[in-house]
Specification:
By secondary structure, the protein is of the alpha+beta class. It contains 7 helices and 20 strands. Helix 1 packs parallel to helix 4. The structure holds flavin-adenine dinucleotide. Flavin-adenine dinucleotide (FAD) binds next to helix 1, strand 13 and strand 18.
Length: 364
């Protein structure tokens, strides 16, 4: 039977980034149920970096990830993963409140019209977040997996964990194809399946709830859109960003409770998205070019979960990354790696209190 120090369940951005941090120090395998890593949430994101997103505690992880995403070490990638476009939180009423650490400025109607030509009159002001950027998600995920493998990590796809049994000093792991593995530590980085994986390890689930989000690529009768800022509603009912010269990615900001599954968009959510979009800009909608959906999975307090399980020895949580799992991945992986290895955290995350994200917080 193959034996590892660490087996990570799930090859999305969470598993890949943590794997890249620990593989040089622990013999590690990532097991991924699908044919390819990144098939689920990681491959379906809106691909932006927005510091204000997710509240003040998540903002700390995002801020601590920025420099790595912008200019990663040369042996990780020859180029950065960010393309700055800025974000306008537009409003018909009050401006939103952002975490104090986030750089932002008020934009009045005249400037707003220049920044988003064709924006309809009720949207009279906005808060502009200049550091918002697109993330090259596929490039980042591939670079984490590359670093993982270079550091000695192994990836096994079409390898769905069926059951794991805790024994003295580790885990006996059974895969759905009948094969078995051993590991001292098992990492639950299974995204929408995190609670199911916990149950398969005879651990208490943490109520990590998957919620479906829809994205639509629209062709519109307007050009020059590619570099416009991301536009979202201060009340959180839509966002869109220019994708090509005359195409946008649009979301109705939906959050539909779902079972863990291969998520697909619902017609009603696409129609809602288009209806909301038409109330923001006068750009004629020509057609839906494509649409997709993915699951964003949240713990009850909507903070991610990093750390060892409170009761089950050797089970490490790396779950509940909601809608910020890509933009927080570099810092979150460094913080989680220090917890898992029992080492001092990297300087970039030293000021972040890991207890905020511990699974033990649900015990008190
Ligand atoms: C529409 C949408 C827009 C988003 N936009 C953004 C954004 O702009 N910026 C941002 O930072 N984040 C965004 N997110 C969130 C981000 O995509 C997620 O937080 C992140 O991808 C979660 O990564 P993960 O590795 O935890 O999950 P996943 O990528 O889902 O990976 C989990 C993996 O575990 C595997 N698995 C499950 N069970 C088992 C098992 N039993 N055995 C083996 N493998 C198993 C699955 O097959 C899956 O591949 C968005 C998400 C969605 C859906």
């Amino acid at each position: 039977m193959d034996s590892f120090d660490v087996v990570i369940v799930g090859g999305g951005i969470a598993g890949a980034s943590l794997g890249a941090e620990i593989a040089a120090k622990r013999r590690t395998m990532i097991i991924e149920a699908e044919d390819q890593c990144g098939y689920h949430s990681t491959g379906r994101s809106a691909a932006f970096y927005l510091e204000s997103y997710g509240g003040p505690e998540v903002a700390k992880l995002s801020l601590a990830s920025h420099d790595f995403l912008e200019a990663p070490p040369g042996d990780f990638s020859e180029h950065g993963f960010l393309r700055t476009r800025g974000d306008l939180h537009v409003t018909k009423g009050e401006l939103p409140e952002l975490p104090p650490s986030v750089e932002a400025r008020i934009v009045e109607r005249a400037e707003l019209e220049q920044m988003v030509p064709g924006i309809r009159p009720p949207w009279h002001r906005a808060l502009f977040e200049p550091r918002c950027a697109d993330i090259d998600v596929a490039g980042l995920h591939a670079a984490f997996l590359r670093a993982f493998r270079r550091n000695g990590g192994e990836v096994r796809t079409r390898a769905r964990l069926k059951r794991a049994t805790s024994r003295a000093g580790g885990w006996d792991i059974e895969l759905e194809d009948g094969s078995t593995l051993r590991a001292s530590i098992l990492v639950n980085a299974a995204g929408a399946w995190a609670d199911q994986v916990a149950l398969a390890c005879s651990a208490q689930p943490l109520d990590i709830a998957p919620k479906r989000r829809t994205l639509v690529q629209l062709r519109v009768g307007r050009s020059g859109l590619k570099d416009l800022p991301l536009v979202d509603d201060a009340l959180g009912t839509f966002y869109f960003k220019g994708e090509g010269d005359s195409t946008v990615w649009l979301s109705p900001h939906d959050e539909i409770p779902s079972e863990p599954c291969d998520a697909a968009p619902d017609e009603i959510d696409i129609a809602t998205a288009i209806d909301r979009f038409e109330q923001v800009v006068d750009w004629p909608v020509e057609r839906v070019e494509r649409s997709w959906a993915g699951l964003r999975s949240f713990a009850p307090d909507r903070l991610p979960v990093y750390g060892f399980d409170a009761d089950v020895q050797g089970l490490f949580w790396c779950a509940g990354q909601g809608g910020f799992g890509i933009q927080t991945s570099p810092a979150a992986a460094k913080m989680a790696a220090a917890l898992l290895l029992g080492e001092e955290p990297d300087a970039s995350v030293k000021a972040i209190d890991p207890d905020v994200f511990s699974p033990r917080r649900f015990k008190s």
